[in-house]
Amino acid sequence: TYACGIPNREALEVIGRYSPVVELGCGSGYWAALLRQGGVDMVALDAYPCSAGPKNNRFFSHAFTEVSLGTAQDLAAYPDRALLLVWPYSPEEDAARDMGEWDAECL
């Protein structure tokens, strides 16, 4: 398995129907990489992207695709994208409040 979500063809196809997509907390970008391979327009965000160096992310040493620095507070820049949360976890107390400000058609 991979984190709390196991990617399979059916899941990727359903998510792809909501393209364009922004994935928040994408870690190594594994799901984003699979979706991009399937032609989905993806923005992959993580508060601690691997691309910032091995000391930046204690869970992943490399990314499967391009992952940009971003948190829930950055979602306002992507109002026309569906939001993908594969393993929603944030130690930040404001995360729930920030997610409450998400104003998109699909969550």
List the helices and strands and how they pair.
Blueprint: H1 9-16, E1 21-24, H2 30-37, E2 42-46, E3 68-69, E4 82-84, H3 95-100
Parallel strand pairs: 1-2, 1-4, 2-3
Protein name: Class I SAM-dependent methyltransferase
What does this molecule look like?
A 4-stranded parallel β-sheet has the order 3-2-1-4, with helices on one face. The chain has helices spanning 9-16, 30-37, 95-100, and strands at 21-24, 42-46, 68-69, 82-84. The protein is of the alpha/beta class. It has one domain (18-98). The chain is 21% helix and 13% strand. The protein is built from 3 helices and 4 strands; from the N terminus they run H-E-H-E-E-E-H. This is Class I SAM-dependent methyltransferase.
**Proportion of residues in extended strands:** 5-15%
Model regions low in confidence, pLDDT < 50 over at least 5 residues: none
Widest sheet: strand ordering: 3-2-1-4
How would you classify the quaternary structure?
single chain
Organism: Octactis speculum
Protein name: Class I SAM-dependent methyltransferase
InterPro entries: SAM-dependent_MTases_sf
Salient structural properties:
4 strands, 3 helices, four-stranded parallel beta sheet, single chain, 107 residues, alpha/beta
Please sum up the structure shown.
With 107 residues, the protein is α/β, with parallel strands linked by helices.
